[in-house]
Request: fold
Amino acid sequence: MDWLKIFRAEKKSSAQTAKERLLITVAHQRQGEGNGLHFLPRLREELLAVVRKYVQVPDEAVQFNVQRDEGLEVLELNITLPEKERRGGVASH
Amino acid sequence: MDWLKIFRAEKKSSAQTAKERLLITVAHQRQGEGNGLHFLPRLREELLAVVRKYVQVPDEAVQFNVQRDEGLEVLELNITLPEKERRGGVASH
Reply:
């Protein structure tokens, strides 16, 4: 899957072009009439907790979004990274 | 961002159509010449650990993929969910 193409298109169309962001998506693709995953709401909180181990992220910098359709559920965490992390707190890897 | 459209297209084109999957992506969009996030490799392991709290996922069911381009880095975890979870271990939410 060409994520670079997808996220580049999104970046261009976004009003947040000037921001540095971390965009986390969790997509659950299921077959037929199966139910959604009961743990997705908790997963959302835990993913954010993991990110917060490494980056200081205030609540107002996080947007949650859930999209659902038959056989597909997508959870999105859109995190705007703080200035401090962008300037000094981010090391090469 | 229309994730349903993106993941539906991916599902159709995937050879794994018959599988139930959890697809996690972490996209880091940065500005200008900034470095990548040093914690992405650790984040990968921690995200998988969080998922494993809820679903039994053997190592062979997990595929990692990283895509990089100027100003953009995308980490992908492609997890094929086990039959057991799909049949009985997944509750509605």
Remarks:
- Confidence is low (pLDDT under 50) at residues 85-93 of chain B.
- Chain B touches chain A through 51 residues (CB under 8 Å).
- Chain B is about 35% helix and 30% strand.
